[in-house]
Amino acid sequence: MHNDLVAALDIGGTKIAGALVGGGGEILRRCRRPTPAREDGATVMAAVRAVLDDLAADAPLWERVIRLGIGSAGPVDASTGVVSPVNVPGWRDFPLVDEVGLAVGALPVVLVGDGVAMTAAEHWLGAARGRANALCMVVSTGVGGGLVLGGRLHPGPTGNAGHIGHISVDLDGDPCPCGSRGCVERIASGPNIARRALENGWRPGPEGDATAAAVARAARAGDPVASASFERAARALAAGIAATAALVEIETAVIGGGVAGAGEVLFAPLRRALSDYATLSFVRGLEVVPARMGADAGLVGAAAAAQAFSGAVGARPPASSV
Ligand SMILES: [Zn+2]
Hints:
By secondary structure, this protein is of the alpha/beta class. The protein contains ten helices and twelve strands.
């Protein structure tokens, strides 16, 4: 019997997932609860504790856990262990690491943003594996991301580095909820793809599905307004990716999240647009690929980040990320 497992939490606006993750990224136990996102902070924390209790209920496995990683919707502040997820109003400057620490006793706890967690997973076992310099992105309800630089996860001082969703790519563009204008997220997130299609005359089918997935189906069927909305999203993503490549010389951009499920409806215009924006010799070879870790990226990545950043004695990053 080894002490070799990492407990992982993936905390978002709709669900709180937990897992016990083995040294090869395998998930040995998992559970999830809906996030009571409209309740007060203590109620949300009670749901987190319930997930931890579910994990600990398998005593022989729980005894093997050596640390705990948390990937949380942001903003987070990994330096202080505090989170203020936009979609969980009851948590503002909420001391998540301290609260989780009370629940798990002596286990070291590592917090990162959900974009950084996804990046850790893709770098460890997914589409950025073996890449020394990569930008990994989640394009769904929002747009998040993280960076691998020089072969290592680069979370930045507060755990938010690579947050490409709030790079401005349209100087005089629409106001973004973050306070800026013309952000990548304001153009390329799923709700914004759907909003723009509706504003330009696209109408959902009789089933009433007005999500970005429905817009993608319409685009695939040849609807020009639906295609144009994805084209615009692709250009925003390409401009953000090209800017990142020029700044830090990434070789790969990995794109996951629900909107990436549109497949070539998104990736074909994205690759075309990238050739418009990524023009300098050192960024021209940049590749754009779909993410591979799917819905478990947050959990596996939280475990990988805990391994990489735990200050505990004997802590070692996963072999593939050093
Ligand atoms: Zn913004």
